[in-house]
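Researcher:
Attend to token order:
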Amino acid sequence: MIAPPKVLFIGLDAADPALLAQGCDAGWLPVLQSMRRNGAWAQVKVPRGFGDGGIWPCLFTGVNPGRHGRYFYHQLKLGTYESEDFVQDTDYGHKPFWEYLSQAGRRVAVIDIVKGPHSKDINGIQISDWMVHGQERPTRSSPAQLVSEIISHYGADPFNGTTDLFKQRTAEEYKTFRDAMIDRVHAKTSLCEHYLKQESWDLFMMSFGDAHDIGHQCWHLHDPSHALYDPRWVERFGDPVKDVYMALDSAIGRLLKYTGPQTTTVVFSGPGMDPAYSGNYLFDQILRRIDGRPDRDRNLIPHAIVSRLRPAALQKFGERINHAKHLYSMSRRKCYAVLHNESAGGIRINVAGREPAGRVKPGAEYEAVCDSLTRDLLDLVNADTGKPVIKEVVRIADECHGKRLETLPDLFAVWSRDAPIKAVTSPKIGIVRGTRESGARTGDHNSDCMLYAQGPRVTRRGPINPIKVEDIAPTIASLLEIALPDCEGVPIRFDKEN
């Protein structure tokens, strides 16, 4: 009797593909190098301008952001000029593929999948928001009692859901942080080993968030070209990013020991990392200048006064007044910045009939505004280097489609990462300078992603043609002999040219 097919999926959230390739070639990532030698690997194309908040939902739904509706943890509230946390499991416009597999009778284990919703009545187990980058919701599990068992045996997240600080760490604090990251890798690997021993799962799917956190916090201790590179720290303690990547490689090896001859292993990495050079902190002021508006909202009560108001109810009243004035100011503009990943500034056009006080008519006027904005943004240069500061302007409607397209920004302005961005200039706007809020992040995302696969249905060896991130969900379903309904990706064929 032929054993049924199995799939082990391992996500390396925000692990940089170029650094992984370097580690494979140099021999310090031997497990991943073995996967490259014994299987196939491919560049993964993703929607331009999107960060991990949009890319991972594409991976587990098999549809583009215009259909699943997600691009960031904080998104526009339709019908308003305000944003809100995107944290509800019901906020997605499309189901994750593991629900289809579960409904088809496959036994599934889903552990800490990035940005993934927590599913009801899963045929197996699910653990959500345990040890992840940027915990958005409390840790949950199915069955519900698993949460207490997990924390009792393997511990809670030592960072309480976030590794961000609003100050630079000391040398010893960076060392402690690196060591805690490695310990967190070991803890999650041990948990996964526990469940892999318990049952022969049809799909065992998990992700590590540690490359994400170490990349954000310690990229300046890895990349010698970084403006904040500290060679003395590296000489004393080593490369913390490399150390965590090596721990992840070892973890993959530990999990592979539980795979049988019927198991196909899929490893996804990305989106990758670059120096965290971003102009998002200047972006709304740039858009104000382009739009011919004042640099700041007028007639606001100064923060220094609001913060001293007593009692607290009076202070809250002052904050509400300022908030209302800010929203009114936004309603008078043709466009404004919306929160997004630091790799790209998000732009919303104030469209009549879509926004509460829209000023730009749909159709020809909308197109003219987008074209004009694109030209103005591409004219911007880094005031310190004289080089273009915007790599490209992405029209979201050209990248995405679907009933949730209106929940997305209209444009993304992707920043050039050649140098720190302290001031930008163009003939139209003059010079815009600002003070960036202090913080510890020194690395941020690029759009590079990679997929590795090995197993009985992977007869190709070496690199194959690039794939789309939406192809991954139907590929895993196909490996388990399920045709995934209502998705845009297509199964990858690892037995011939794709």
About this structure: Residues 19 and 397 are 32 Å apart (CA to CA). Residues 171-198 form the longest helix (28 residues). The two ends are 30 Å apart (CA to CA).
